[in-house]
């Protein structure tokens, strides 16, 4: 089995630092969309591949564009969290790294749900 890690392509939150990191739920930029399309040639997918992505707009957009035309499974999981996700409780998550709710994901990426290619992994925390 081969495991490939790919970061999302250019997002809106990287355009005007440090101000832009306060963008809530940033999307891909036009350049990010072009970069995502180039993944098809760099790392071609097949229907047996599985993409696991964090629940952020830019990562799901990257996965959607990269896998366009391929009905491979896509899993959205909070276990694959943004790089800036706080490691200590006194730290705060930056607005650009806040994750989308399941409802927003279903609404914005409904085409993936309708085709049955996106799954949601829910993790219960032990108390």
Automatic annotation (TrEMBL):
Pfam families: His_Phos_1
Name of the molecule in the record: Histidine phosphatase family protein
CDD domains: HP (cd07040)
Entry superkingdom: Bacteria
Residues making up the signal peptide according to the UniProt record: none
Gene3D superfamilies with a match to the protein in the record: Phosphoglycerate mutase-like
